[in-house]
């Protein structure tokens, strides 16, 4: 196995939780299963309503620390003629996985995302996504996701494993552009402000 996919100690794959990892805990105030989470930021490429070429991913809370989502591939998302671009599919997986943090009420960003592309996804197809948090170790959250085509029980077209790392609000306020931060903080939808600046996706 290459050094890119193994840890420095013991040869454990970097996306395998360490032995002291714990079960993920759903926050008591997490939305009930089936509740749409809505966009966390209107300009988000993954879920924002104000991104004309964005994915407009519709994520719903699932059981435990799990979510489901749908993404319909549009012509703007092509790589090969008539087929979704792999980077766009990885974005859909990333956004779905990132939404898990809202159920834990933790601010976290993607540290590592490993994707498998198993079947081509045509324009017009709807990708039925599901993601779940598998373990937590300190600031690290381990999670996996898959996307099926032809229906929620259809064949798996894409899947991913990911590591998210908990960060403070300063991750955004120190690194993001001030104009976007100001605009997002003045959003009259205070739930969105809390998600963007106190919790994340
Ligand atoms: C303005 C609006 C705001 C909106 C907010 C909503 C969010 C929206 C997002 C929505 C979109 C969806 C989501 C998105 O797209 S989020 C956007 C994409 N992600 C990023 O931009 C993150 C960029 N990276 C960083 O900022 C830093 O590298 C982070 C914060 C990740 C870590 O740097 P930091 O200095 O803080 O911590 P550390 O280096 O001590 O690491 C801590 C631990 O983690 C382990 N580790 C780290 N990296 C990796 C790796 N690659 N593989 C394996 N392990 C890794 C590391 O070994 C260590 O483990 P241990 O030694 O403790 O055992």
UniProtKB/TrEMBL annotation:
According to its UniProt record, this protein's enzyme class is hydrolase
Reactions this protein catalyses: decanoyl-CoA + H2O = decanoate + CoA + H(+); (5Z,8Z,11Z,14Z)-eicosatetraenoyl-CoA + H2O = (5Z,8Z,11Z,14Z)-eicosatetraenoate + CoA + H(+); hexadecanoyl-CoA + H2O = hexadecanoate + CoA + H(+); dodecanoyl-CoA + H2O = dodecanoate + CoA + H(+)
Q: Does the keyword Membrane apply?
A: yes
Write the signal peptide boundaries.
none
Cited InterPro entries:
HotDog_dom_sf, THEM4/THEM5_acyl-CoA_thioest, Thioestr_dom
The record's section on Pfam families has:
4HBT (PF03061)
Give the membrane topology: Peripheral membrane protein
Q: What is its main location?
A: membrane
Q: Where in the cell is it found?
A: Cell projection, Ruffle membrane; Cytoplasm; Membrane
Gene3D superfamilies per record? Hotdog Thioesterase (3.10.129.10)
Which GO terms fall under molecular function for this chain's record? hydrolase activity
> What SUPFAM superfamilies does UniProt report for this protein, alphabetically?
Thioesterase/thiol ester dehydrase-isomerase
CDD domains, A to Z: PaaI_thioesterase (cd03443)
Write down the superkingdom of origin: Bacteria
User: Which of UniProt's keywords are assigned here?
Assistant: Apoptosis, Cell membrane, Cell projection, Cytoplasm, Fatty acid metabolism, Hydrolase, Lipid metabolism, Membrane, Transit peptide
**Thioesterase domain location, by residue?**
82-151
Could you say which EC number(s) this protein's record lists? 3.1.2.2
Region Disordered, as annotated, extends over 1-37
**Family, per the entry?**
Belongs to the THEM4/THEM5 thioesterase family.
Q: What is this protein called?
A: Acyl-coenzyme A thioesterase THEM4
- Native organism: Streptomyces polygonati
Lineage, top ranks: Bacteria, Bacillati, Actinomycetota, Actinomycetes, Kitasatosporales
């Amino acid at each position: 196995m290459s050094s890119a996919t193994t840890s420095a100690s013991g040869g454990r794959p970097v996306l395998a939780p360490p032995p002291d990892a714990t079960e993920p805990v759903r926050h008591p105030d997490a939305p009930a299963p089936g509740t749409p989470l809505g966009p966390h930021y209107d300009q988000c490429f993954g879920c924002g309503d104000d991104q004309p070429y964005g994915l407009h991913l519709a994520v719903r809370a699932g059981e435990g620390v799990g979510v489901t989502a749908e993404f319909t591939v549009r012509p703007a998302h092509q790589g090969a003629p008539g087929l979704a671009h792999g980077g766009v599919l990885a974005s859909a997986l990333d956004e779905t996985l990132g939404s898990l943090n809202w159920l834990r009420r933790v601010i976290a960003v993607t540290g590592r995302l490993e994707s498998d592309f198993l079947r081509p996804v045509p324009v017009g197809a709807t990708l039925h996504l599901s993601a779940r948090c598998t373990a937590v170790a300190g600031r690290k959250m381990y999670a996996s996701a898959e996307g099926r085509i032809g229906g929620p029980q259809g064949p798996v077209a894409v899947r991913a494993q990911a590591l998210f790392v908990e960060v403070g609000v300063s991750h955004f306020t120190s690194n993001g552009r001030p104009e976007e931060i100001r605009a997002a903080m003045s959003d009259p939808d205070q739930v969105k402000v809390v998600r963007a600046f106190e919790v994340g996706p």
